[in-house]
Amino acid sequence: MCRLLKPILLKRLFKAWFAVLGLAVLYVLVDFAIDIRPPGVQSSYHFNLEPLAPDVPVFLRQDNLVVVVIARSAASIAGLRQASTNLQDPGSSRSHQPAFATNELRSRHAGYFVAYAIGTHLGCVLEAFGRGLQETCSNAAYDYAGRALQGENKFQNLAIPNYNFSNDFSTLTIRP
After folding, report:
1. What mean pLDDT comes out for the span 107-114?
2. CA nearest neighbour of 51 among 176, 130, 168, 174
């Protein structure tokens, strides 16, 4: 009697395992087929900017989007144009940025820098440190052009969104 019970129990466990596996696969398929995000997630994001202090990173948040904006001084711009020895990817050849940001300052306007405020090493939020930006959960550091500084690990430059400023730089529009 005990020997007959084991194969029956194994068959039932096997069927239950396949049922759970089937439900998991069904859940994944439904999750990818139906987009249940809020309707405004894929639209443009608009940020009203107060006058920005030079060389002070400002972090802007809306929904699940966090960006950093830096108004760069003339001295900062000159320093960024000359710095290339301590950068991992000075030409931004392995970076994610729109075509307008494929320049040494990685921005549409030399006086302003905009990037997603998520690091590229471990994917943590950025914070200001000294004259640059750093991931909160690692030692990954970036300059005010979002270029990765030399360190123990290799990682990409910060990702640059597709953005526009109003004519007077009082409004920032980002299209994710």
Report:
1. 92
2. 168
For the cut 90, the answer to whether the pLDDT of residue 112 exceeds it is yes
pTM of the model: 0.72
**Cα angle for residues 124, 128, 131 (degrees, 5° grid):** 130
Residues 137 and 120: beta-carbon distance below 8 Å: no
